[in-house]
Amino acid sequence: MLNPRTAERPILLVDDDTRLLRLLALRLESEGYAVAVASSAPEALQRLGELRPQFVLADLRLPDIDGFELLSRIQGHSPGLPVAILTAHGDIPDAVRATQAGAVDFLTKPVDRERLLSCIRTHLGGGTAPGDDDWRSGVITRSPVMEALLDDAGRVARMDSAVLLTGASGSGKEVLARAIHRASRRAARPFVAINCTAVPAELLESELFGHRRGAFTGAHADQPGLFRAADGGTVFLDEIGDMPLPLQAKLLRVLQEREVRPVGETRTLPVDVRVLSATHADLEERVADGRFREDLFYRLNVVRLQLPALEQRREDIPLLVQHRLAQLAQAGAPRRLYSAEAMEALVAAPWPGNVRQLFNVVERNVALAPGRVIGAALVRASLGKRSIGLASFDEARAEFTRNYLRQMLELAGGNISRAARLAGRNRTDFYKLLSRYSVDPRPGRRQDGPPPAAG
């Protein structure tokens, strides 16, 4: 099924179900992809060297070599080659384990056409075939929360409305802004981004709107400014909440009049840009205390898209890690992979710095790992005190019970019998609970201990 007339590297499909192979191949070929197939693991390994595929979709249950072994051999032969796993619904726990071992994604049978195409476009870094979803190829996700956000972003991209992107630092606001630009009618024109906190306040106006030669000390030549540089395209104003008030008034005028006045210039110049802005701050709060203009806020906040924190999309962490490992390998870094235990530590960890922090930890791990496999100890060392993330069910239940018992004691003024009645237990049972959960009944005394044994 590989087209010999094209030099395009194919997608390699591996499954012992020949009917499914034909169906998947037809779907992909209809989208313009070159496709190669293999009905066994040995055949797939042989075709790796012959075809140098750009993507592999392999069934987890093959008759000759276990899917985990095939994944390991592909990684050894072609490090960085994206491999997705095809699985039946009952094998999903194994598929998740395969993802932790290095697979970039997994798809369940019967394979949904759009899910298949989205998976391939995502992990080919934009794909080789034209498609309506190419604009979102830079957003690495399989999270339902992110998918819903991308649906909204795709719809708003078709309009010229101003969009305000909110979310914690490092959550990917600029990545989403670039995706919106790619999906818009302005995609062929420039995308220009500026961080309003990265430029000194006295220079920010010149940076945005330009200046005439001699307008201020150091202005040795005319400069057009970012708005005019982006004419016909998109300007992305990151951390807009930190823009100085005097400049906010000038930005409002630019948005209303669609023209800019460079510093030192007496006339205005027309400009056609779409403005996307972003902030991690609460702009309503800043409007209320006078630090942000209300009229500018309403001008920028025509559509608001809220990016979730990384802890709200933990299922994306293995995908993001694999994406970052591939980026680092392409830049010349050693090729590394995470052990299953190390990946579990990453998934469970708190991420106050969100995707940016995750990528920094991955880069640090790649630099410091003594061998090809990154272990859990190195991950925990990189995370430091933040390495403890999600509590287990038993830990969470024990902490809740401890707090509940303390509250009952406090309400009862330290009287055990009264506290037991409040809790709906007899005095003996209540004493047993205090002992089991290491709660000292005396006021002000706490004995925080490990969660009790299950049972």
From TrEMBL:
<dbReference type="InterPro" id="IPR027417">
    <property type="entry name" value="P-loop_NTPase"/>
</dbReference>
<feature type="modified residue" description="4-aspartylphosphate">
    <location>
        <position position="59"/>
    </location>
</feature>
<dbReference type="Pfam" id="PF00158">
    <property type="entry name" value="Sigma54_activat"/>
</dbReference>
<dbReference type="InterPro" id="IPR009057">
    <property type="entry name" value="Homeodomain-like_sf"/>
</dbReference>
<dbReference type="InterPro" id="IPR001789">
    <property type="entry name" value="Sig_transdc_resp-reg_receiver"/>
</dbReference>
<dbReference type="InterPro" id="IPR011006">
    <property type="entry name" value="CheY-like_superfamily"/>
</dbReference>
<dbReference type="GO" id="GO:0000160">
    <property type="term" value="P:phosphorelay signal transduction system"/>
</dbReference>
<dbReference type="InterPro" id="IPR025944">
    <property type="entry name" value="Sigma_54_int_dom_CS"/>
</dbReference>
<dbReference type="GO" id="GO:0043565">
    <property type="term" value="F:sequence-specific DNA binding"/>
</dbReference>
<dbReference type="Pfam" id="PF25601">
    <property type="entry name" value="AAA_lid_14"/>
</dbReference>
<dbReference type="InterPro" id="IPR002197">
    <property type="entry name" value="HTH_Fis"/>
</dbReference>
<keyword id="KW-0597">Phosphoprotein</keyword>
<protein>
    <submittedName>
        <fullName>Two-component system response regulator GlrR</fullName>
    </submittedName>
</protein>
<dbReference type="GO" id="GO:0006355">
    <property type="term" value="P:regulation of DNA-templated transcription"/>
</dbReference>
<keyword id="KW-0067">ATP-binding</keyword>
<dbReference type="InterPro" id="IPR002078">
    <property type="entry name" value="Sigma_54_int"/>
</dbReference>
<keyword id="KW-0804">Transcription</keyword>
<keyword id="KW-0547">Nucleotide-binding</keyword>
<dbReference type="InterPro" id="IPR003593">
    <property type="entry name" value="AAA+_ATPase"/>
</dbReference>
<keyword id="KW-0238">DNA-binding</keyword>
<keyword id="KW-0805">Transcription regulation</keyword>
<dbReference type="InterPro" id="IPR025943">
    <property type="entry name" value="Sigma_54_int_dom_ATP-bd_2"/>
</dbReference>
<dbReference type="Pfam" id="PF00072">
    <property type="entry name" value="Response_reg"/>
</dbReference>
<feature type="domain" description="Sigma-54 factor interaction">
    <location>
        <begin position="139"/>
        <end position="367"/>
    </location>
</feature>
<dbReference type="InterPro" id="IPR058031">
    <property type="entry name" value="AAA_lid_NorR"/>
</dbReference>
<feature type="domain" description="Response regulatory">
    <location>
        <begin position="10"/>
        <end position="124"/>
    </location>
</feature>
<dbReference type="GO" id="GO:0005524">
    <property type="term" value="F:ATP binding"/>
</dbReference>
